[in-house]
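Dear colleagues,

For the upcoming journal club I promised to circulate an example of a predicted protein-ligand complex. I picked one with S-adenosylmethionine because it came up in last month's discussion. The inputs are reproduced below in full, followed by the predicted structure.
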Amino acid sequence: MSKESIIDDSKPNAGRMYDYYLGGNHNFEVDRMAAEQVISLMPFAPKGARLQRWALQDIAAELTERRGFDVIIDFASGLPTNDHIHQIAPEGTTIIYSDYDPVVVEYAHDILGETPNVYYFEANAANPEALLGRPEVQKILDGKRKVGFVLWGVSAFLTDEVLAHTAKFIYDWAAPGSCLAFNAQGADLPQNPMLDRTFAIYEKMGAKFHRRSLDEFRHLLKPWKVDQDFVSLLEWHGFDESELAKEDLEMIGPLAGGFGAYLVK
Ligand SMILES: C[S@@+](CC[C@H](N)C(=O)[O-])C[C@H]1O[C@@H](n2cnc3c(N)ncnc32)[C@H](O)[C@@H]1O
């Protein structure tokens, strides 16, 4: 996404449109109009967004309660509303959220207020060295590098080069035993004219959608190791498909479900 479209509230922004799909109120008229255009093409878009957020909640529990991480570093976090990681992770978990959209960061600070151990920084996932190298972040981590990373709901908007760099940088930075919860967004999407029209809306606002196969994702994420294989979000651990209508399953399944996996070092 271009910097101009992020700070200009006269143009729609993908992050704020996502907030609108989730029923949030941190969006502008221009975002709602573009989001409604997408919904008219793909009526299941809000349910697809809620599915992605639901899986993120499960990840919060997996990384903390089941895998034992007490520090989570999340890239491209979006708004930390009450369905985000810090609401699920046990008290005392340190959560470092980040997003490159200054408007999202400002809203995020309002939402979080003084929530203990939860931080939110402006940072580009394309440049993880900037977030991890920030003096405030180094102070919070106090030398700790065995952490749970999250890169969820953003990978389709990163180029191959950026994705490979981000994955490799955090792998090299992290201590052995670290984990990355990764969403292979839009992997293996079929050709579909509605999708093409939707992607054109996003591309016009500077958010180009990159189509990839799961194999291409696997290659770009090296040297992380996939712990178990990628799982479709519709089959995500514990997700009950009866939550969605048959028509939603038929559309979300092939078109928008995406895949997720835990990658380990
Ligand atoms: C679809 S939301 C995903 C939010 C959250 N991770 C989730 O899965 O619910 C995408 C967010 O990624 C942010 N974003 C997009 N590209 C980014 C980048 N290169 N670096 C940091 N944030 C980015 C947008 O501003 C937006 O808030």
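Two points we might discuss: The pocket of S-adenosylmethionine is lined by residues 1, 14-15, 18, 52-53, 56, 75-78, 99-101, 104, 124-126, 152-154, 157 (CB under 6 Å). Residues 5 and 205 are 6 Å apart (CA to CA).

See you all on Thursday,
B. R.
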